[in-house]
Design goal:
Blueprint lengths: L1 H27 L2 H10 L5 H9 L3 H13 L11 H16 L6 H9 L4 E4 L9 E7 L9 E7 L8 E2 L22 H11 L1 H6 L19 H9 L1 H5 L22 E2 L2 E10 L2 E10 L5 E2 L5 E13 L4 E13 L2 H10 L1 E8 L3 E11 L4 E11 L6 E4 L1 E4 L9 E2 L2 E4 L5 E3 L3 E6 L6 E6 L6 E4 L2 E4 L2 E7 L6 E9 L2 E11 L7 E4 L7 H15 L2 H8 L12 H10 L3 H8 L8 H13 L3 H11 L6 H13 L3 H28 L1
Parallel strand pairs: 5-13, 11-26, 18-25
Antiparallel strand pairs: 1-2, 2-3, 3-4, 6-7, 7-11, 8-9, 9-10, 9-12, 12-13, 14-19, 15-17, 16-17, 19-23, 20-21, 20-24, 22-23, 24-25
Helix pairs in contact: 5-6, 12-13, 13-14, 14-15, 14-16, 15-16, 16-17, 17-18, 18-19
Length: about 650
């Protein structure tokens, strides 16, 4: 009873602290400041907003607002803040023409500005009302060089919504006049391609030329590209100025255009058949679902994994899109009570990384992010810990498994007293394992049930006689501490979450080799990347892998190999491929071929830079009149851009 009283007091304390914090933040801002925060909510970072909410005086808020705009000013030497002027122009345009800044089109317009090309497909009988916006990334960090962003009115009704390749398909774009029950994704794609080839390509991927109409989605992560767009304000703003307004420690520095929900995430490293794997389990506190006219409960879930080195370079990223659907109200209630834990895995190379796993419910626009730092080296001892070790009779690769074992776990790391703490340790020497109470160091339990099984050590510790508490689970070997996690042993029963996971067949090993090669390439270890690419069988040097392999040879400056790989007939000549071919041909002095490739690049955008390159190529070939045509075109395009910018500024 005494413990229950302490628990109730703790909960009340947390509630009161949260309530007072919320009330304080709400009353600090007068209406003008609330209006300003509403205006800038798409570009203000989470750290900036937290700092602003902590300010006590009107003077500090005005000083903050001045610094907010000043740090974004691209030309501080001029009397005008070009960024601020452009932002309010975009805001006005979104309010006047794009259903407001919080609409899907308005949000993209404010973040990226005017697309260099916009096509409207309204009024056609084969497709719903939709708009295709084309963007060039320029110098903006993390964005693909060229992007298709598609917006559509679902079934020609309501406001425009953003199209997400992978989550949506060509079935969402064809006219509601078609019988969707009799139309496949491939058939819908072919219907669109018959009249609008560019629109059809945009249904596959944000990046032109990528994607497979048979699979119905891009092989690269369009969702990752969208995440990069939405988080541009975080990466483009220098935040050191916030130190002038108070401490910002502990603030998660990521902004999302959705409501934040609670959740838990957990990461473990395992080893299986010569590969090291990063395993994750991510569990939202709630999954809001939408009930449809046919009495189904649906939610569109996206889980984005991003692995970066300590300099912020992306080593690996992947997106998993899941369409949840329940036709049974009891099953939905069971899921809500027990919760869903989404589990997945990916092979990983050695290094120290920052890992972020973003869960997003696109149906109700809820999200949360789990972040963790990991270090994988020759000294890393993979460890899997959970509430049960199961023997499995499958050769498939699956999360939190190795050989013939699979570990069941709860990402909250809570254990009922009637359970057993169990785990697998990939170690040659027998480790020392113990539990130490967080609040009472004298409450120390050494785990002695440790058995060698093959190349693993298996340990088990019944919890029935262990005091309910929070414990540090520590594993050590002769080289020192190899694992440390906080677990909770609780006196009452809590239902385990329902696992939602995937597995991959044993023949996936070559896919893992390709993934590891890409990771080495992203790390800048080019020779190792090429070594791994060369482990792939000949049939896997195909239209999907060749552009990636060619990029490694391009960085190595083996331009002849780049041309040899990318000139193969089965390689789609998209923007990235043409750019590699054009530049490599120039390096090899194959000027006529270079001109052909840069001519093909113009279909993605008739830019000043490409026209200047073509002018220089033709001049070096002795075709001076042709060179003059391109140089003159580059000059006219530059003047047109300057005039457009001038007219826009005058309009302010």
């Amino acid at each position: 009873m005494k413990n229950k009283g302490k628990l109730l007091f703790s909960l009340l304390s947390v509630f009161l602290a949260s309530f007072l914090s919320f009330s304080s933040a709400s009353t600090k801002k007068s209406d003008p400041w609330k209006k300003w925060l509403d205006e800038v909510h798409l570009i203000i970072t989470k750290a900036e907003k937290a700092v602003f909410n902590s300010l006590e005086t009107e003077e500090d808020r005005k000083r903050f607002q001045g610094s907010f705009w000043k740090v974004r000013d691209p030309k501080p030497e001029t009397p005008y803040n070009e960024y601020k002027i452009e932002f309010y122009r975009r805001l006005w345009h979104a309010e006047a023409h794009l259903e407001g800044p919080n609409s899907d089109r308005g949000r993209i317009y404010i973040l990226l500005g005017e697309p260099f090309e916009k096509k409207n497909y309204s009024g056609h009988e084969d497709v719903v009302d939709c708009e295709l916006w084309s963007y060039r990334a320029g110098e903006r960090p993390g964005l693909p060089p060229f992007m298709y962003l598609l917006f559509y009115r679902p079934k020609d009704f309501g406001n425009y919504r953003q199209y997400h390749p992978g989550l949506h398909s060509a079935l969402d774009i064809i006219s509601p006049g078609y019988s969707l029950g009799q139309t496949s994704k491939l058939k819908a794609y072919n219907i669109i391609r018959g009249g609008f080839p560019e629109l059809a390509r945009a249904t596959l991927s944000i990046i032109p030329g990528e994607g497979d109409p048979v699979m119905g989605q891009s092989l690269t992560s369009s969702g990752s590209a969208l995440t990069q767009i939405y988080t541009l304000p975080e990466r483009e703003v220098e935040k050191n100025y916030l130190k002038n307004f108070g401490a910002i420690e502990g603030i998660v520095d990521v902004t999302y255009s959705a409501k934040e929900i609670g959740g838990k995430g957990f990461i473990s490293i395992s080893e299986n058949r010569g590969f090291k794997f990063l395993n994750y389990s991510i569990m939202p506190d709630v999954i809001d679902m939408r009930k449809t006219a046919d009495n189904l409960h649906r939610a569109n879930i996206s889980i984005n994994l991003r692995i970066e080195d300590l300099e912020g370079n992306t080593i690996h990223q992947q997106e998993r899109n899941i369409n949840l659907e329940f036709d049974d109200a009891k099953k939905k209630a069971m899921i809500e009570e027990r919760k869903l834990a989404f589990k997945d895995f990916v092979p990983i190379v050695e290094g120290e990384y920052n890992v972020s796993i973003a869960f997003s419910n696109k149906t109700k626009e809820g999200f949360f992010v789990h972040k963790e730092r990991i270090n994988i080296s020759d000294y890393t001892m993979p460890v899997l810990v959970g509430y049960e070790i199961k023997e499995i009779n499958s050769d498939n690769f699956m999360p939190f498994s190795t050989g013939g074992y699979k570990v069941l776990l709860d990402p909250r790391l809570i254990f009922n007293k009637n359970e057993t703490l169990e785990g697998l340790i990939f170690s040659e020497q027998k480790p020392n394992i113990h539990l130490t109470s967080i609040v009472d160091e004298n409450n120390f339990i050494e785990i002695k049930d440790i058995v060698k099984q093959g190349n693993l050590f298996v340990f088990r510790q019944p919890l029935i006689n262990i005091k309910s508490d929070n414990y540090s689970l520590t594993i050590k070997n002769e080289k020192g501490e190899i694992y440390k996690k906080i677990i909770s042993v609780i006196p009452f029963h809590v239902e385990k979450p329902v696992d939602f996971e995937r597995s991959e067949v044993s023949s996936s090993e070559f896919n893992y080799i390709f993934v590891l090669a890409q990771q080495y390439l992203n790390k800048g270890e080019i020779d190792t990347a090429i070594e791994y690419f060369n482990k792939l069988p000949e049939n896997l040097w195909n239209s999907t892998t060749l552009p990636v392999i060619a990029r490694a040879y391009y960085i190595k400056k083996d331009y002849g190999k780049v041309v040899e790989l990318l000139e193969k007939k089965n390689v789609v000549k998209n923007y990235t491929v043409l750019l590699l071919l054009g530049n490599s041909s120039l390096e090899l002095k194959r000027k006529q071929k270079a001109a052909e490739y840069f001519e093909m690049l113009r279909k993605y955008g008739d830019t000043v830079k490409i026209n200047r390159i073509l002018g220089a190529i033709y001049y070096s070939l002795g075709e001076r009149e042709k060179a003059k045509v391109y140089w003159e075109r580059a000059k006219n395009l530059e003047k047109k851009t300057e005039k457009k910018n001038l007219d826009r500024d005058k309009g302010q």
